Amino acid sequence: AGCEKEPTSYMWIYILLGNMLRGIGETPITPLGISYLDDFAKEENVPVYVGILHTIAMMGPMFGFLLGSLCAKLYVDIGFVDPGSITITPQDSRWVGAWWLGFLIGGALSFLSAIPFCFLPKSLKKPEGAKKDKASHGLLENTGAMGNKLSPEKTKPRKWSAMLKGKYFYNSLKKVLGNRMYFTFLCCSLLQFSSFIGFVTYKPKYMEQQYGQSTSKSNFLIGITSLPPVGLGIFLGGLIMKKYKMGIIAATKFSFAMSFLSYAISLLHFFVGCDNHMVAGMTVSYE
């Protein structure tokens, strides 16, 4: 009974709020960035630009794992204790790395990278040679959400509260989700990202438990081996789509073929395994 302790720290609330703020700040980059590329770039260059955007986005987690590997080598109370008084090493199961240091470094870099966005103009001129009537207006016109030709009065920006209360938002959402190809692609993306996140999250722990690697080395290996091939694949996919000038049907067939090939290769993971560790009360008896 003397060993039982109730958790009294509420620091997790700060971590939760910090991740919420980070998500709010990061969310507009992908949808608005891709929408801008699609509206203002030449049609044949859009796949390459989108591929570059996603490739750069994959470099962030890669450097994050490398930073986590570096922080895991530092003791959790670095700066508050004498390093010479620490008698354990990162290979010791009692070692706890400076996990909090990555949040400070990542937060500071995110803040600095956000400063240039403050100097962008409110509106950007459309370059010559770009498509004039792109997906956003075309989709709404075809689904009937915009009705007839927009009048100058209807093109005025409206408040979010007015959009959510009226039928405009719900009709548009219903039409978009009613698009079978888009809805299928949405479900496919959810499945792919769910599996990828689980793979990246738990594979370092698997390497620690099954192969006796330290937390630092596991994060380093994941950052070097798992994420760069994904970024390279995204970039090569954009180049292939540009070279063969794929339309929506050709791009769908290409995506299906690559996804099926990826699924078939992933089945090889079922043939990789190690013997279970001897854990008293779980894999072996207490005696």
From TrEMBL:
Entry membrane topology: Multi-pass membrane protein
UniProt record, GO biological process: monoatomic ion transport; sodium-independent organic anion transport
Gene3D superfamilies in the cross-refs: MFS general substrate transporter like domains
GO cellular component, one term: basolateral plasma membrane
Taxonomic superkingdom: Eukaryota
GO MF terms, alphabetically ordered: bile acid transmembrane transporter activity; sodium-independent organic anion transmembrane transporter activity
One Pfam entry name: OATP
InterPro entries listed in its UniProt record: MFS_trans_sf, OATP
Keywords annotated in UniProt: Disulfide bond, Ion transport, Membrane, Transmembrane, Transmembrane helix, Transport
Transmembrane feature ranges: 12-37, 49-76, 96-120, 181-200, 220-241, 253-272
Annotated compartments: Cell membrane; Membrane
Similarity remark: Belongs to the organo anion transporter (TC 2.A.60) family.
Name of the protein in its database record: Solute carrier organic anion transporter family member
Organism whose genome encodes this protein: Calcarius ornatus (Chestnut-collared longspur)
Lineage: Eukaryota, Metazoa, Chordata, Craniata, Vertebrata
